[in-house]
Write the structure tokens for this entry.
Amino acid sequence: MDLRIRSFEDYQEKYKLSVTDPDQFWDEIGRSFQWNEPYDQVSKWEFETPDVKWYLNGKLNITENCLDRHLECKGDDCALIWEANNPTESAVHWTYQELYEKVCEFSNALKAQGVGKGDRVIIYMPMVPEASVAMLACARIGAVHSVVFAGFSANAISDRINDAQAKMVITADGLNRGAKQVPLKEVVDDALIHCYSIEKVIVFDCLGSNPNMEAGRDVWWHEAIDGMDKSCPAEPMDSEDVLFILYTSGSTGKPKGVVHTCGGYMVFAAYSFQNVFQYQEKDIYWCTADVGWITGHTYIVYGPLLSGATTMMFEGVPTYPDASRFWQICDKHQVNVFYTAPTAIRALMACGDEHVENHDLSSLKVLGTVGEPINEEAWRWYKERIGKGRCPIVDTWWQTETGGIMISGLGDLSPQRAAHAGYPLPGIQPVLLDQEGKEIKENGVEGYLCIKHPWPSILRTTYGDHERCKVTYFSHYKNHYFTGDGAKRDENGMYRIIGRVDDVINVSGHRFGTAEIENAINENRLVVESAVVGYPHHIKGQGIYAYVVCETMPSDLEKARAEILETVIEEIGKIAKPEKIQFVTGLPKTRSGKIMRRILRKVAEGEADKLGDVSTLLDPSVVDDIVAGAF
Ligand code: WTA
């Protein structure tokens, strides 16, 4: 199944067709997949409710497309390489045949433990190949997986379990991350105190650490698969049956469960993977993301496997045992396509070029980035130092909600410009809107980034709360999907993403809502209220700056800070820790009680001299205190 566009001219032609006749365009691509029953309509949609369906009445199982269909010709080809955290541990290589058998075996284990079609399963796993097996096994039997990044806290897990009303958790005793080990099973045990829907917990033995196992509830992975058959019929799924839920933060409330369905997601994952990376048969492809994020779902697991590619998973971190680890792995496995995040690039760049030298990077053909805007300096370093000026950089813009890459270069086919994501993929129709919601048609402009026509992997709903999906994405601008991002379009029509225009902070490519972090901080007994904003951070892209009001000013500020950080770690996880906590006597509020974040943002950005008009504030004097005490 080769879905690749061949040249920039080919791109332009396909793009035109995709706009004039989207259904014909997507039908041609859809036909390349294996359907148990063909679809009878390509798309049916309206953005009002919203109600979007793709490949209607088609029946399929995504794992038959990821695994079974490759067995005849590619059964002995490498499907998955796993590189351990410990550099002296040997890598794992699984062929398509082996991966197929492991997925089937675990599918049978899931069924034996009482999981069936439509049941929700939480996956809270280290970056081990069994995490991919767990996802695929759920998909094979029609269970809905919801992967929770293994850095989230017990409270964050229980929120997700309860929202999804999940029946099972798949986890491990713990994980290796650099020089540290994290006891995952303990975290799950804590989470389950507040959950009543969970019947079984399957535990993969990763560390040999002998965790607490609750009789009747907890089952070892190796015992669960013992004696299971290595083949398992794939559950026939409707195109619009749910494939997975992935929780992501928005500007309000708790994280919401973004819902993706089987048919459209499958088509777009493979199509975007092959085109953006210009993947060629036998290439070794490595995406450094974690399976806990959408990038791991679409571009470690589904996109590559649907395409019969060799996908690599890495257990560790870029700086362990030292800052040359990524380049050492590229050399060791002769990686051809490498996909990572700007924050990793900036962190490694700061460690010095000596870590890049002495590693053979000549196998690299395409380099990718994702998750946040990449600054020009990091872009150039990546291009010159890693790609040696030879490799195109694909700066891929997309979101959990879009399911796959929307705006990006296509390997070496497209023109490139530093820090610009570039042109939309054929089938994707981005527009820039102004304050009034009017489309800005010219080039050389800036506006709110929206999409005016659906694509197969657009989110279908937010789990259990369709209204929230409507309000968040489809109500800002009539008949448009609103991304929450601002963007520029240059003279040549290339897009450059500026960043979020809503109350979402992007820290090292991880999304957090300001309200979500404020709610966590407010749980601390010292705190009366708080306000959180993002500020530019040289490695993380954005850092979290928290303004905190306590009943009385704490006498020991350092101690109070540490206590608040602990609360945030408990409520969300270490990844959401504010970089800076400033204790203030009050927050700048309008007379109606609304917090003026604009002012707080300016102070956090070190631009206290550009606050603008503060006379409409209820108490303008708090601003002076805030400015005086700023970091
Ligand atoms: C940001 C990650 C600039 C953007 C796949 C988006 C980017 C949010 C880029 C989605 C990029 C992602 N350039 N910004 N190439 N890619 N973003 O859901 O603000 O974790 O809205 O999906 O990350 O984050 P999410």
About this structure: The mean pLDDT is 97. The longest strand covers residues 527-537.
